[in-house]
Design a protein that fits this description.
This is Stress-inducible protein. By secondary structure, this protein is of the alpha/beta class. It is built from 9 helices and 12 strands. The protein has 2 domains: about 140 residues, HUPs (Rossmann fold, 3-Layer(aba) Sandwich), CATH 3.40.50.620; about 140 residues, 3-Layer(aba) Sandwich (Rossmann fold). Helix 3 runs parallel beside helix 4, helix 5 crosses helix 7 and helix 8 packs parallel to helix 9.
């Protein structure tokens, strides 16, 4: 089954930038594009919507207008439009389940509903089964130029983060871009070391060589699968979020793995993904575990 690239829109500048990004990526991957405008009937003195049917018509017209511009730029692209009424998180999560990826504006505020505000955006990331890409307003195709890289973060053991690495390599291959694989490390407390870990560190020659060895092992299967993709191995001491953000200025896309958790106060994404989403200068892909 062919999965479309799905863009969630709400009429905001951010969501329209996300739609443009999704359309370009659909063309690169030769996939159809599905555009979803989630909405709920709302009464508001400032909105002259009349009734439910009138409000739905307004939403549909707004979605069709956005799609019309995409069709003009990408004549051969297969585009469908859906305007389901319902809860934003549930609608977008369901849309992501059947998609190659879900593309959203990072700060969407439509006149009827802004679906990417605070905890709602986090909930979509937590619940989505597929990669979720966040695009800021102002993103342009001109930003995807030669020399700009697809940056991907890696942490943990070599077998960890395979889904994020795979997404980064496939995206870079489609764009003819370099993958910059980033692994940050810090000095842990001495008591965190077990005798076995101390032996591994000693065999590796120290902490940084140990981290480089882990990153090289994690990249090996992807280098073999995508031999034409140039790879830069970036190992640096510091917090993962800070190191990733330091290279975001020249990135086409930032790819991070998802480490989400639920609590009594709602869903929470990991600190690295959260920091990158708030501060990166480029689109960010959050990829769930395989």
């Amino acid at each position: 089954m062919t999965r479309p690239i799905t863009a969630g829109i709400d009429g905001s500048e951010e969501s329209l930038a996300a739609l443009s990004w999704a359309a370009r990526e659909a063309v690169r991957r030769d996939l159809p594009l599905r555009v979803v405008h989630a909405w709920r009937f709302q009464t508001h003195d400032a909105l002259d919507t009349g009734d439910r049917a009138a409000q739905e018509r307004w939403v549909r017209e707004a979605a069709e207008e956005a799609v019309r511009a995409v069709r003009e730029r990408h004549g051969g692209l297969d585009v469908t439009t859906d305007v389901p009424e319902g809860d934003a998180v549930e609608t977008l999560t369901a849309a992501a389940a059947g998609a190659e990826m879900l593309v959203l504006g990072s700060r969407g505020h439509g006149r009827l509903m802004g679906f990417l505000v605070g905890s709602v955006g986090q909930q979509v990331i937590v619940d989505a089964e597929r990669p979720v890409i966040f695009v800021r307003a102002g993103d342009k195709a001109s930003d995807e130029v030669a020399g700009h890289e697809v940056v991907v973060g890696h942490e943990g053991d070599p077998e960890d983060g395979a889904a994020a690495l795979g997404f980064a390599f496939e995206t870079a291959a489609r764009r003819g871009a370099t993958v910059r694989a980033v692994r940050a490390w810090t000095l842990p407390p001495v008591f965190a070391y077990s005798p076995s870990s101390l032996q591994l560190l000693d065999e590796a020659g120290g902490l940084e060589p140990f981290e480089r060895k882990n990153l090289a092992a994690a990249l090996a299967p992807w280098r073999e699968r995508f031999p034409d993709v140039h790879v830069v191995e970036h190992v640096e001491m510091g917090s993962a979020g800070q190191v990733l953000l330091s290279v975001s200025g020249t990135a086409q896309l930032m790819v991070v793995g998802r480490r989400a958790r639920r609590s009594a106060v709602g869903a929470r994404i990991g600190s690295v993904a959260g920091g990158v989403l708030h501060h990166a200068d480029c689109p960010v892909a959050v990829v769930p575990p395989a």
